[in-house]
Design a protein that fits this description.
The protein is α/β, with parallel strands linked by helices. The protein has a domain of 70 residues: Rossmann fold (3-Layer(aba) Sandwich). Helix content is 27%, strand content 18%. It is built from three helices and four strands; from the N terminus they run E-H-E-H-H-E-E. Helix 1 crosses helix 3. The longest helix has 10 residues. The radius of gyration is 13 Å and the shape is globular. The mean pLDDT is 90. It binds nicotinamide-adenine-dinucleotide. Nicotinamide-adenine-dinucleotide binds next to loops.
Length: 102
Amino acid sequence: MNMHVIGLGYVGLPIAIAFSELGNVVVGIDKDKEKIDLLQKCEPTIAEAKLKHLLIKNVTAKRLSFSTSLESIGKADVITIAVDTPTLRGGGRFVMYIHSST
Ligand SMILES: NC(=O)c1ccc[n+]([C@@H]2O[C@H](COP(=O)([O-])OP(=O)(O)OC[C@H]3O[C@@H](n4cnc5c(N)ncnc54)[C@H](O)[C@@H]3O)[C@@H](O)[C@H]2O)c1
């Protein structure tokens, strides 16, 4: 399946890597360009056992890629949203992207 994960923090990054390790084609998306730059170089942005090994393995196999852009979201079979929880009444800085292919 083509899977997109939006938000690559403590939840989203391990999910994106695990989905790709299971054989899916995964695009990880985050608004933080510095984070995306590091991940594109297979540099882990969180401390987690085996993360670097699995990043290199799945990026090299072209199952896992990273972007700041939502451009490819229309190709996704599954979209996982793992961005921050709103901290303020009314939504705070939370933005939810909704995609429809119809
Ligand atoms: N960490 C946990 O143990 C845990 C447990 C249960 C639930 N959660 C929930 O999971 C969600 C993610 O938690 P986390 O710990 O991974 O947070 P995090 O802060 O580590 O990561 C969130 C990521 O989302 C990105 N982001 C925020 N808004 C974005 C947007 N509009 N577009 C693209 N990227 C965006 C941020 O740049 C950041 O990299 C939260 O809602 C949290 O409440 C976390």
